Amino acid sequence: MLRKEGKTFRDIGLIKEKFTSRAFILGVVTALTWVAFMQFVYIPSIKYFFEVPDYTEYNFIKSSMTRLIMTVFAAIVIGGFYEEIVFRGYIQNVFEKRIFKGFSPLIIMFLTSLLFGLYHVQQDIFAVIAAFMGGLYWVILYKRFGSLWIPIISHALFDTITLILIYKGVFGSITY
Fold it and tell me: With 50 as the cut, is the pLDDT of residue 53 above it?
């Protein structure tokens, strides 16, 4: 789509010069923050208020380091790069510059994040809500810093840490 429009990845915020040590550190810190929020706030809250089925989608990695490594690689490519480029980079920009031009940036951020949440509907409603909140988190990072690198690193590392926690059998195991 970018090529068809005569644009490049630079036009959506994927700028080589913005891949800096600062961007990397911000990506790491924000990923750790998001993991902590999910593990210590979101998951315990939904488990307190709702009957939540066990999350089993990634159980296949629990018994195999090879499967974990392959899944982490796929998560980095799909979650970190693909999803951030498509949702925060492309869709967010199309909404802002064409479809919802003149609307409040907050409404557009909300809509992009809602689409991102619905993109995860194959999981369950709690994953859709978590993805929606993650979408808001990563779009705020994107808008705040003007670079896709920070949400790409943050999202990729979040997915990596989450998969390792699933592999270790401790993802979402914190209850109150």
Answer: yes
Place of tokens 């401790």: 170
pLDDT of residue 173: 53
Local confidence band at 176 (pLDDT 50, 70, 90 cut-offs): very low
Count the domains in the chain.
1
Q: Let me know if residue 67 belongs to a domain.
A: no
C-alpha count within 13 angstroms, C-beta hemisphere, residue 49: 6
Residue 64 φ then ψ, to 5°: -150, 115
* Alpha-carbon distances, residue 9 vs 74, 99, 141, 161 (angstroms): 21, 20, 18, 27
In a domain, 97, yes or no: yes
Cα–Cα dist 167/176, whole Å: 22
Q: Which amino acid is at 53?
A: P
Q: Is residue 129 part of a domain?
A: yes
> What is the distance between the alpha carbons of residues 133 and 146, in angstroms, rounded to a whole number?
19
Q: Which domain holds residue 118?
A: 25-51+75-168
